[in-house]
Amino acid sequence: MTQAHDDEDTYDVVIVGAGIAGGILAKELLAKGFSVLILEQGADQGHDWRTYRNYLDQYYLSLAKTPNSPYPDEATSPSPSVLDIMPVHGTSPQTDGYFVQRGPVAFGSNYLNTYGGTTLHWLGTSLRMLPADFAMASRFGKSVDWPFGYEELRPAYEKAEWEIGVAAEVSEQSMKARGLRPSDPGDSEIFHSPDYQFPMHGIPQSYTDRYFADRADGTEVSTVSGTVASHTDEVIAVKVSPTPQGRNSTPRLADEKGALPVVAGKQIETPYQPRGATGAFAFVGQRCEGNSSCIPICPIQAKYNAMKTLEDSKAQARVRATAQNKSQANSIGEKAARASIGKQQIDRIFRIKTQSVASEVELDENNQVSGIVYKHYDFPGVPTYTLRRARGRQYVLAGGALENTTLALASGLCRSNDALGRNLMDHPYMMAWGRAKDPVGPFRGPGSTSGIASFRDGHFRREKAAFRLEIGNWGWNFAAGSPQSDVSRMVRRDNLFGCELRQKLWHDVQRQIRIGVLVEQLPRESNRVTIDPAYRTAMGQFRPVISYDIADYSRAGLALAHKACQQIFQRMGVEDHTNYDPGAAGYLTWSGQGFTVFGSGHLVGTHRMGSEATRSTSVTDQYMRTWDHSNLWMVGCGSMPTIATSNPTLTMAALAFRAADAISEALT
Amino acid sequence: MNDTPSIAPFSSPDTARSALGNLLQQALMLELSTIPPYATACYSIKEQGEYNRSSPQIVNAEPVEVIRQVMVEEMLHMVLVANVCNALAIIPVLNDPALLPRYPSRLLSGKGPMLRLRRFCPQQIAAFREVEKAPDAESYDRIMRGEYQTIGGFYIFLDAQLEQACEQFGEAALFSGDPARQISPADYYGAGGEVILVTGLSSAREALREIAEEGEGATIDGELGGIACDGDKIPGPTGEERLDIAHFFKFDEILHSRYYQPDDRLGTPPSGGDMIVDWSAVWPMADDLSKDIYEKDMELSALSDQFDRIYSQLLDGLNDAFNGSPERLGQIVPLMFRLKEAAQRLMRIPLCDGETAGPLWLYREREGD
Asked: What angle do CA A510, A516, A522 make, to 5 degrees?
């Protein structure tokens, strides 16, 4: 084994992973005056317009436009691909692709190991968790409570919404406006703080959304019986509501009285400035243009991605370097101070080392982290590297739930209990699709602009999983490969061509509607990530070995969701075309019914937070500091004790703000 | 400069308003008239996949972006002029065929630079640069007599007239427009800068100054004259100020294949990084196309008509937006995408001599629906 060479500079904080969590941590800690190093395994692509255009080219050329299709998948920093998800048979693991799947159910999600992380292909959905989601054990006797409640995280949610630039209206996002009957009536009042507003106005609802709202609102679904409710059942009324989204719309100016919102207890002084594309094309992407390819790539970066936060962090470093130069030479002007910034000077304040794969977190005799050994490679795709060691005072793993876990396991961290890698969760994603009576104008606008939040909370959570319904704007794209599959079917099966083909295609595709179901999964010890020396990447890194199942609680939730979708379609007069293939990797059965689920890309759990009382089953304390190593923090979706029914990015961003405060305290 | 050559006084508020109305309507048409030539050049650049290379290459993405930036600022200028009109209770007209620009023609009623419909080529970009030229060479006296030859000179004249009128009859008497007709930042943002709500002389002058600054980098009162920066901020990362470049310099950047830095001076070559410009990755659209070329070909004239109809809908929409329905602005955005598609459809059709068809930008009266 070769010896790792120490890096010259030591930083206040060393972060692993240049994604949204790492970006926010860096930006916050830089603002507080600390020096920061980020180690990123992917290459330095995407942050300037030329390399971003390469992503676009790759997307245009890809035949299967999967979430990771635009982005590099190099041997030096491989990412999981949804194309590799295959059924797991018996006890032999499925090892195609990056994951090693032990089953019994194939874990269907992916993520992206590159500069900017998975925010490059996320949809932008920025939902908060509900107050009840923080108290699953005390309210429903299920799984665990978070070590803190909703109200404690609320200011961090506000900061996260302003960092991402969430477009939504408070008046439309209150629990009441969304038709959510909380399991505790007090939840509604605390959901938004009094003078809070989102940084941008809501993205308009699509025509499909309004088509749904006009016809499906008020549909009553019993959480217990079949389609006819008995009077003792808990009955939930469907309500379509707009979804908060991390994409640029119209920035919110002062209201009629000239007042700007209060965010995390602080009065905002200037309205939110939307950020466009990173790099030289800053003028594009200040507003969503409806390019309709949010997943896998927004061509103009109107959708938030973590590269924007990382650019802010770099700007922060330049501002600090300018100030340093000014204070050193008394009479020097702003411009001269800026001009005299050296690369080394910047690097000492903030540096992102890309092509640097963290491979071992080293501990000293006091069980404190003493350094992170990383493999620096010169050429993407060529697994030849030099070993280096980064040093800091505090260390943060922010590379995503699975990457954090494999690195920690490989380094023998957090061994005082057996919690690391356990409680992996995702949102099993099921679809229902059908043909409406009228044209609804699909394949336009962002992937989803509204959803049905009605089933996100309720007393039924004692027995079955809560879920959110997402209304799709892109027809049967995800569900059935439309419109390409329609063309092929009409040509081959129906023998249509020319004008007739065009007319039929137009007629059918215009009427496609789809609902996505994101169902809650409870933490289970047996859903876990481990490592195995037999499975490594070309760089010698451990691949995630995943054992995964979907429990009856979630399956019961899926069955309820399926029933709800059918009732909604019935009420809307939609012809149901939902069809679940028993041969699919995600085919599940429950109580005589079968459903196909996919992953949502929401990788949650694995290094969850806990309180003193749950110390033996958690990896970190409530501020994401590991129980075992006082200068090591694990931050990200992996920190979440439960997944609930909201897409986790916003919650992760809020947690990053929370951790940044705690880390800064630890440094002072 | 203290004994400023003065503008002849107006005989009455009505004559002042009608003189200003004339000038502002001209300003509106002036800003509009740049858009078809700029857009045509921009659309003629081949995009990825249209460029005949075995592997995809990024060609001309930068010039497309630079021209696009100029275009959206011209659109902003139209909005600013409309706000000045509406503040003065003058009706801005955008869809009167008698007033709309035709090509080829000289700007400023024949006194200004020449504008033609041509593909992206060095001569055309040089012509655009000419359009955005600062009024340096012009004497102030001549401008004040209305004998301006540049757009900058025109705006100096307009500004002086506005000031004169306010001095004579008072701001309140002139700025009597309905504030509800103003286009606000909520109706228009994310394209070229911030909309200014015009309520009186100072905000009107601010709006006119923004137009002049973004054009040639020289302000009406001479603050920024001669440097590349136009005083606008680029929407870059939080906490850092980056300054934008004026149009004259942007076109010059394309000709030099090199970016300007905000403090570069007029007359010195750009000092920034390289810009990749490929003059050959362009649809060879024929110069100065006219209607009679398409007349013999049914399909071509149908496509050309289709383009014109979209253009006309856009102008009608803008006219509505500027005349009491600001919310229409957002609704006509999709038309701009369709306009580009329709133009590029034409540019793919060969005519003869290896040249292709292109858009004519002719207005057709609104159909009675």
From this structure: 180
